[in-house]
Amino acid sequence: MTAAELGVPAPHKRRAWATAKSLAVELPWIWVFLAVVAMWAGIVAVSGRGLLGTMTAAIALAPFLVIVGIGQMFVITSGNGNIDLSVQYTMPLAGFVGISVMSGGSGRAALGALAAIGVGTAVAAANLFCILVLAIPPIVATLSVGLMAYSASSLQAQSFSALPDPGLHAFTVSSVGGVSWLAIACVGLALVAGGALHRMTYGRALQAVGQNRRAASLAGLPVTRVIIISYVVCGVLAAISGLLLATYVSPSVSIGQPYLLNSIAVVVLGGSLVSGGRSNVVGVWGGALFLLLLTTLLNVMNIAVATQDIVKGALIILVLALVGTDQGS
Fold first, then answer.
1. CATH topology for the 28-323 domain
2. What are the CB-based long-range contacts (under 8 Å, 24+) for 79-82?
3. Which residues pair with 78 in a beta bridge?
4. How far is 43 from 305, CA to CA, in rounded Å?
5. Is the pTM value of this prediction over 0.85?
6. Secondary structure string (H, E, C) spanning the chain
7. Cα 80 vs. chain centroid, distance in angstroms?
8. pLDDT tens digits for range 20-52
9. What is the reported pLDDT for 185?
């Protein structure tokens, strides 16, 4: 009897399957980019839009999600349930504070940016105090701190009338060759983050801590310092994204709302382990483009918002299965 008759896959099929599994492990982000291409083709087919225009629009909006997603990735990579639920509240508060400071006169954009970074650092410090000193679980700690930041944003919004710096606004909306300057800067940020994760001592320690915190501690790695840096990076990047988004549109207490679950989704969709220990910066870009194009496709198809959430959830689960985020992988 032949191998086919016995139900045994042919050698070339076994090799193809082995190659696919190898790619899933070595390049887990490849699946989300395949999903991006599928969403892109779907939008063009359904709406008749041009290929270039569709992707250009997505790339223009992706940086805000990529920036906060990279910060979230640092925290998630540290493992042990670490996650930052305060990002959606840090973003509007940083926007209000940063724009308030920079509106005091010309040439104050840098001061406004520093003020926004200060907000992100302060929120991160509060998160770390609750987690490391009070031993409150990260989910509860960051959500509680975030709600306090939300209250501060609400107070700011009541009498807010400041305008963003014209130069900074021009930076967020301008482009070169059809690609926004913000997207180009965000690619640079991704390169820096990738270098920090895979070339610096901190990055290697971060992944070791995420894989097994006790083993990392026994090996003499500075576990507490690694966690502190991760939360500070997340808070600062959320603040920067919030300031840029508030400058791009307008300050609002709700501008960060879509970025809570999306900042987590882009990390996991991009091939990082939600249990920690493995991160992928390239995948964050893929996850951001996928979510934006998916939303665009559903809007083009006139799908109701409630139904959109069901479709998004189902497709994200499908991509997660292809990414291979199995904790044992």
1. ABC transporter involved in vitamin B12 uptake, BtuC (1.10.3470)
2. 79/209, 79/210, 79/211, 79/213, 79/275, 79/276, 79/277, 80/210, 80/213, 80/276, 81/137, 81/138, 81/139, 82/131, 82/138, 82/227, 82/230, 82/231, 82/276
3. none
4. 17
5. yes
6. CCCCCCCCCCHHHHHHHHHHHHHHHHCCCHHHHHHHHHHHHHHHHHHCCCHHHHHHHHHHHHHHHHHHHHHHHHHHHCCCCCCCCCHHHHHHHHHHHHHHHHCCCCCCHHHHHHHHHHHHHHHHHHHHHHHHHCCCCHHHHHHHHHHHHHHHHHHHHHCCCCCCCHHHHHHHHCEECCEEHHHHHHHHHHHHHHHHHHCCHHHHHHHHHHHCHHHHHHCCCCHHHHHHHHHHHHHHHHHHHHHHHHHHCCCCCCCCCCHHHHHHHHHHHCCCCCCCCCCCHHHHHHHHHHHHHHHHHHHHCCCCHHHHHHHHHHHHHHHHHHHCCCCCC
7. 19
8. 555 555 666 787 888 888 888 888 888 777 777
9. 94
Residue 132 β-bridge partners: none
CB-based contacts of 119, cutoff 8 Å, min separation 6: 90, 93, 94, 97, 98, 149, 239
The one-letter code for the residue type at 47 is S
CA dist 268 and 230 (Å) reads: 17
What pLDDT was estimated at residue 328?
44
**CA pair distance 104, 112, nearest whole angstrom:** 9
Residues of the chain with pLDDT under 50: 3-4, 8, 325-329
Q: How many CA atoms lie within 13 A of 294 on its CB side?
A: 26
